[in-house]
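#onboarding

Welcome to the new folks! Below is a worked example of what a typical request in this channel looks like: someone posts a single protein sequence, and someone else replies with the predicted structure as tokens. Don't worry about understanding the tokens yet, we'll cover that in week two.

Example request:
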Amino acid sequence: MLTKRIIPCLDIKNGRTVKGVNFVDLRDAGDPVELAKQYAKLGADELVFLDISATQERRKTMHDMVLKVAEYVNIPFTVGGGISSVEDVDDLLHCGADKVSINSSAVKRPELINELSKKFGSQCVVVAIDAKEINGEWFVHLAGGTIPTELKLFDWALEVEQRGAGEILFTSMNHDGTKSGFADKALATLSNLVNIPIIASGGAGNVQHFVDTFQKGKADAALAASVFHFGEIQILDLKRELRANNIEVRL
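Example response:
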């Protein structure tokens, strides 16, 4: 049985880690390099580093930040934000990233997934999907959740798998920052639909939410931000509780 992964997310804006609710009302959560160092020591399985305003501001991910974070971590490290070409990914991997996360650029030009998978291997390509449930249907949103589309979550998930994505990072915009639990019903549907790992994101508020997303949502990994950044949940305590619920994790 594959172990379930716990992944802190570092959302970066103007060089600082930030966290909001439903993708708005951002507040400062600390220095990303210091947080990365702590998480690497405290039992995180991976890290995700998202330059959340790179696409909106039409610029590339901050390479110097990636270099600094990569210097201090010995766990897999995913970088996203403003990535739109093979060259972008090549640069980030040379800066120390293990994987890249693409979102808006993949929707705008789906062939990018094929190109990256062919060049770097599917294990390197994470497709992030920010989606919002509207009248019972899940629709994909772009540019940090600011641009709605007519693209449906489950159709897009199937396509990104077929094009060579190695993982899907699904964030429920309805649940993001609410601490009311992950979108487990949608996650379970995704997990049954595709054969690549699904990372659950959006809604973590307590340990039971993680238990539920692995058991009910069938997620392969769970990503969270504020509950880790502000010390509400300690990663090792969380993993011990998951083990107590017969969920296999690395301790």
